[in-house]
């Protein structure tokens, strides 16, 4: 593909039983961009993010990463699900950070970061440890590398989770409300790490309720409402000139945080 | 009752005379227990994984097996394996018939325990494993099973204790394990209280050791918290 679009979603649909959660999502993430998904809960942002990483399978439309459809291939005009191995390989190119951290509790911080490096990327242990140390110090946790998750605060756990995701050198990093489960005073340390990653050119797709962060760091903001993209554009446009009543009232909840 | 003098007809004398049969009985009990626990753990873990993640027909088969095994008395299973199978031309030595029957029984228990343990691992763990690109077998091996096995440690120890006690049933098919050894000694000298008390104490010691080892393991894995 000639352009620098890394992730392209076209008409993505997804239903849970009779409830259609995604009603045709179009979205593009360019290389090096930070794209944020905002919207009320139930608007489908998290579901969309999970579809990108194949934690959910979309029912219709297509999601292309580097021009390659995720989760299936087309054979004689029919969609066929990829094998488990091929799906795992695709997932390895996409990193994901979860709301609940999901660190492996039986592994130390360092081992959490090393697991994918040694088992998925087949790196030798020594090299994996080096990479883990590098990323753990990037998130400010070099001295905690031998700690188990329960010995770390929520903010520290989430920073380890970010290190675990980014150490795999993914093409794209997904953030699923990564500060929502944190105590307020721990939010900024995680957002700081994310901002650093964004500045280093990491391509990121972020679901967040941290409107200040979204406005400051995103190149592109997508407002989702009831399974559709209601408005999208640069943050100044979305925050400065909300077109719909629903976006106005959504942003109104954050009123006072910035001058809308 | 307990008499500490050392003369024929006293407990210590009779125990000394029978020391080799007692040691042999102890060995039979301990080896049958150890083998059963080993087999049942291997097969039980495999079957537990099948119960949790298998294709529907595999889950169904495993479920039928587990419910069947949990629903019948171990003694029936032992008698069937020893006498029943010989009707089909399969003649197993009593010891092995017993070990197989006990293993078949304990496998069902461990399988069900493991299924529960696997399902108690939060869904986010599987998802985190997916997100870093681990294949299913790797997620199972490096993420789910290490956590599930630690969670099932207490019920696993219980199954071990049940197995040790269950080996006494092997005396019914003529395996000269610890209980039958003591019965034979009692038949000679009528020191009923002494030798049954002695046998009980030995079982207690074996099981106390297992429980102690289990508690130690649990302490070792105490960092597994959320």
TrEMBL record, chain A:
Location of the ABC transporter domain: 7-251
Any GO molecular function: ATP hydrolysis activity
Keyword NAD: no
Major subcellular location class: membrane
Membrane topology annotation: Peripheral membrane protein
Annotated Gene3D superfamilies: P-loop containing nucleotide triphosphate hydrolases
Name of this protein: ATP-binding protein
Species of the source: Teichococcus aestuarii
UniProtKB/TrEMBL annotation, chain B:
Membrane-spanning parts: 26-56, 68-88, 195-215
Main location: membrane
Domain of life: Bacteria
GO molecular function: transmembrane transporter activity
Positions of the ABC transmembrane type-1 domain: 26-214
Keywords assigned by UniProt, alphabetized: Cell membrane, Membrane, Transmembrane, Transmembrane helix, Transport
UniProt xrefs under PROSITE patterns: ABC_TM1
Gene3D superfamilies: MetI-like
Subcellular location(s) of the protein: Cell inner membrane; Cell membrane
UniProt GO BP: amino acid transport
Family to which this protein belongs: Belongs to the binding-protein-dependent transport system permease family. HisMQ subfamily.
UniProt protein name: ABC transporter permease
Biological source species: Teichococcus aestuarii
């Amino acid at each position: 593909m000639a352009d620098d679009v890394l992730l392209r979603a076209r008409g993505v649909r997804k239903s849970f039983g009779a409830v259609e959660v995604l009603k045709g999502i179009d979205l593009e993430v360019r290389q090096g961009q930070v794209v944020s998904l905002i919207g009320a809960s139930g608007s489908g942002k998290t579901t969309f993010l999970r579809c990108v990483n194949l934690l959910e399978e979309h029912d219709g439309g297509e999601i292309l990463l580097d021009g390659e459809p995720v989760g299936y291939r087309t054979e004689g005009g029919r969609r066929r699900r990829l094998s488990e191995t091929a799906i795992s390989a695709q997932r390895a190119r996409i990193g994901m950070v979860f709301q609940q951290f999901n660190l492996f509790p039986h592994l130390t911080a360092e081992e959490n970061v090393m697991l994918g490096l040694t088992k998925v990327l087949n790196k030798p242990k020594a090299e994996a440890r080096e990479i883990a140390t590098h990323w753990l110090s990037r998130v400010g946790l070099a001295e905690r590398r031998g700690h188990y998750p329960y010995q770390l605060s929520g903010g520290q756990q989430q920073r380890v989770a970010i290190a675990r995701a980014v150490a795999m050198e993914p093409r794209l990093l997904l953030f699923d409300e990564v500060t929502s489960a944190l105590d307020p005073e721990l939010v900024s340390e995680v957002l700081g790490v994310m901002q650093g990653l964004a500045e280093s050119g990491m391509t990121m797709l972020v679901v967040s309720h941290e409107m200040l962060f979204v406005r400051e760091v995103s190149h592109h903001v997508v407002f989702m409402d009831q399974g559709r993209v209601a408005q999208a554009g640069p943050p100044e446009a979305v925050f400065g000139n909300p077109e719909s009543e629903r976006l106005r009232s959504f942003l109104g909840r954050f009123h006072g945080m910035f001058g809308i | 009752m307990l008499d500490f003098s050392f003369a024929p007809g006293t407990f210590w004398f009779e125990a000394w005379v029978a020391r080799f049969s007692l040691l042999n009985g102890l060995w039979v009990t301990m080896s049958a227990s150890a083998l059963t626990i080993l087999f049942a753990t291997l097969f039980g873990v495999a079957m537990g994984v099948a119960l949790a993640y298998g294709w529907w027909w595999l889950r169904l088969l495993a479920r039928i097996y587990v419910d069947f095994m949990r629903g019948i008395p171990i003694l029936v299973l032992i008698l069937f394996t020893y006498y029943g199978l010989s009707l089909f031309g399969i003649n197993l030595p009593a010891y092995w018939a017993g070990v197989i029957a006990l293993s078949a029984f304990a496998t069902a228990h461990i399988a069900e325990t493991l299924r529960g343990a696997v399902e108690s691992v939060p869904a986010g763990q599987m998802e985190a494993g997916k997100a870093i690109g681990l294949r299913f077998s790797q997620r199972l091996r490096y993420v789910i099973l290490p956590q599930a096995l630690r969670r099932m440690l207490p019920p696993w120890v219980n199954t071990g204790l049940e197995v040790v006690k269950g080996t006494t049933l092997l005396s019914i098919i003529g395996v000269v394990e610890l209980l039958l050894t003591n019965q034979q000694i009692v038949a000679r000298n009528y020191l009923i209280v002494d030798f049954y008390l002695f046998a009980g104490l030995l079982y207690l010691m074996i099981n106390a050791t297992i429980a102690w080892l289990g508690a130690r393991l649990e302490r070792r894995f105490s960092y597994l918290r959320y």
